[in-house]
Amino acid sequence: MGSIDEALKANELYAQNFPFADSPKVPARKLAVLGCMDARMNIERILGLEPGDAHVLRNAGAIATEDVVRSLLVSNYLLGTNEVMIIGHTDCGALGLNDGELRERIERERGATAASPAQFLGFSNLEANLGRQLRTLRAHPWIPESISIRGFIYDVATGRLAEVKTNRPAITTE
Ligand SMILES: [Zn+2]
After folding, report:
1. 20 vs 7, 30, 108, 120, 147, CA distance in Å?
2. CB-proximal residues (5 Å) to ion ligand 1
3. Within a domain: residue 81?
4. What CATH code is carried by the domain that includes residue 64?
5. pLDDT tens-digit series, residues 81-119
6. How many structural domains comprise the chain?
7. The pTM is what?
């Protein structure tokens, strides 16, 4: 059985005893989270969230892309969230990812070029990357100053979050 078929079986069980029918559409904790897609991070469990509590956006590297900004504006203006957590993590797959090499490899394997994605957005320093994403969101003219935006590194070995403060230079771990 493939993984999708296995997942569908699990969903059957989930839906048999479904306690979240009355969850609110407006996130109860007024929280939005941007996290990496890493399979070891279960954002809801890491943060003690239940369905209806928060918006969770994920992509490779927890990058504040145009689409993340789009989603955060919907989250904030239409659905009332007022705090944002960005969560990167140790041992991230995007750490050390070389844009040019990956592009070349895919082009070689597929025998074709593509205009999009324009970039893979790999990075070489966890804290510095997180700082960039924090600055991108804080500097956006449509994200109000009243929105609290904070950044964290999740340690995949301990399950613990550590806040990255960006009012001082990023700590270099390399
Ligand atoms: Zn990652």
Report:
1. 19, 18, 47, 36, 28
2. 36, 38, 92
3. yes
4. 3.40.1050.10
5. 999 999 999 999 999 999 999 999 999 999 999 999 999
6. 1
7. 0.92
